[in-house]
């Protein structure tokens, strides 16, 4: 019933949305036939759809919650902002038979192909990990909680921050259910498992997978980022252990006794889904297209296998397992609805940065880390990564195409791409909207009876714990 009301409440917005699209079309430049590429053809105001969509994602859940509740309305908003860009690219690809038309058509096709690959990965990890139920209740000691978070930070690189969050948040909350002083536990779970932990592989966090799709070698992240990852994870774990020890000592004896009575060994249901997750990793490693050789891998073999493995999980995993896991398709539907708009609307921003990025004066790794991190904390970190990677590509003479970042990763600007990667992944923990799993963990914690801070309250706690840690990372590795 609530879903139906949300959908009916969204229909009046279609009229204003249509007028908005018409107005934005007028803002985009007419095809500049003499332009050498998209970066020369787009005027600076062509980034308005991208900025508008990101602001909509950030603000509408707070100011238009009833409207935003519907995935249909989210899709309408995303396509509304993106349609001027897509329309201009499609029109230009038909009327211009030169370099500009070719570039416009290529950009449109590349964005759609990248979206398909992106969603295939997230869908497969989300669906398969949702079929794994970790039952049990451990003693809620600081040592147990710290080990739990450390394991989550490692697992996030194998099944993604979304998968690790889905798998581990409920057993961790259940373990600490008898305690009263637990305000910090979901927060550090978001810091470590939902964000910072997933730094070492393209599977770990969506920004890194987008980099992989754009030519960054699969093992480049672990080879180049393991030291700052280990440092940040260790510092946050130490801070958590000290804080949890202080809070644990303030617990009343009856809470400790209740916790000890409720101990139950951990056990998995649906554990065979781990084999399917291994299959997803194998598909990424073995079926990714070779840009130099046209073979079957160009025809979405990787994506077909990943989605197929997700389908196997849905068909074979008992429904009761997903029910006990409180599994829902709504979060992944929201990601799918919004990111089709993001992938299309960000084309002018990446093209402009690639063509004119050197004029902005952002050249040093530490500057890229701060700039990428600042936006990733309050906007989605995946498009932020792409935007600043494109900026780095525009500054690096060896990088001639923002859709192919291999030269950027392997050349003299590798430290810059590392800074962009760290800024996007680490600072996605800066707010509830910085990364997809953040809101999911918040919702699950509230449902489990935990009192979560407000949007700005969370930002304040994140700033207190994360800024000193990330500042040290910046000073040690990026200056």
Commentary on this structure:
The chain is mostly helical and 479 residues long. The protein has one domain. Helices cover 70% and strands 2% of the residues. The chain has a two-stranded antiparallel ribbon with strand order 1-2. It is globular, with a radius of gyration of 23 Å. The protein starts with a helix and ends with a helix. The N terminus is likely disordered.
What tags apply to this protein structure?
globular; 479 residues; 23 helices; mainly alpha; two-stranded antiparallel sheet; 2 strands
In short:
With 479 residues, this protein is mostly helical.
Q: Please estimate the helix content.
A: over 70%
The string of secondary-structure elements, in order, is HHHHHHHEHHHHHEHHHHHHHHHHH
Number of helices: 23
**Can you list the strand order of the major beta sheet?**
1-2
Q: Based on DSSP secondary structure assignment, what is the total number of beta strands?
A: 2
């Amino acid at each position: 019933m609530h879903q139906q009301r949300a959908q009916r409440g969204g229909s009046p917005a279609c009229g204003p949305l249509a007028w908005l699209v018409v107005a934005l079309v007028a803002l985009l430049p007419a095809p500049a036939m003499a332009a050498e590429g998209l970066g020369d053809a787009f005027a600076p105001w062509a980034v308005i759809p991208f900025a508008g969509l990101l602001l909509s994602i950030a603000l509408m859940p707070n100011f238009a919650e009833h409207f935003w509740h519907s995935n249909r309305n989210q899709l309408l908003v995303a396509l509304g902002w993106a349609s001027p860009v897509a329309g201009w690219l499609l029109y230009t690809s038909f009327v211009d038979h030169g370099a500009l038309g070719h570039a416009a058509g290529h950009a449109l096709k590349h964005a759609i192909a990248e979206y398909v690959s992106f969603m295939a990965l997230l869908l497969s990890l989300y669906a398969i990990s949702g079929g794994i139920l970790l039952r049990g209740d451990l003693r809620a000691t600081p040592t147990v909680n710290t080990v739990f978070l450390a394991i989550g930070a490692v697992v996030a690189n194998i099944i993604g921050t979304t998968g690790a969050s889905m798998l581990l948040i409920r057993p961790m909350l259940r373990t600490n259910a008898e305690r009263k002083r637990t305000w910090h536990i979901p927060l550090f779970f978001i810091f470590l498992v939902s964000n910072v932990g997933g730094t070492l592989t393209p599977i770990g966090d969506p920004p890194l997978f987008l980099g992989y799709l754009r030519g960054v070698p699969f093992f480049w992240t672990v080879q180049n980022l393991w030291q700052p990852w280990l440092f940040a994870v260790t510092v946050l774990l130490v801070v958590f252990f000290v804080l949890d020890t202080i809070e644990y000592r303030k617990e009343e004896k009856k809470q400790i006794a209740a916790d000890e009575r409720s101990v139950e060994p951990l056990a998995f249901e649906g554990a065979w889904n781990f084999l399917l997750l291994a299959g997803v990793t194998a598909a990424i490693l073995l079926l990714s297209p070779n840009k130099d050789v046209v073979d079957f891998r160009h025809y979405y073999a990787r994506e077909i296998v990943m989605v197929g493995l997700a389908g196997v999980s849905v068909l074979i995993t008992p429904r009761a397992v997903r029910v006990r896991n409180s599994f829902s398709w709504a979060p992944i539907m929201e990601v799918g609805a919004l990111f089709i708009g993001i992938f299309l609307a960000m084309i002018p921003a990446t093209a402009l940065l690639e063509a004119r990025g050197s004029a902005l004066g952002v050249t040093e790794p530490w500057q890229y880390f701060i700039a990428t991190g600042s936006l990733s904390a309050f906007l989605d970190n995946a498009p932020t990564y792409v935007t600043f990677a494109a900026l780095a590509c525009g500054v690096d003479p060896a990088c001639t195409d923002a859709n192919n970042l291999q030269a950027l990763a392997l050349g003299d600007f590798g430290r810059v791409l590392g800074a962009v990667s760290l800024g996007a992944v680490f600072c996605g923990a800066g707010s509830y909207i910085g990364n997809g799993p953040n809101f999911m963990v918040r919702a699950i914690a509230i449902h489990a009876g935990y009192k979560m801070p407000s949007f700005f309250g969370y930002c304040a706690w994140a700033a207190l714990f994360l800024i000193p840690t990330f500042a040290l990372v910046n000073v040690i590795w990026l200056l």
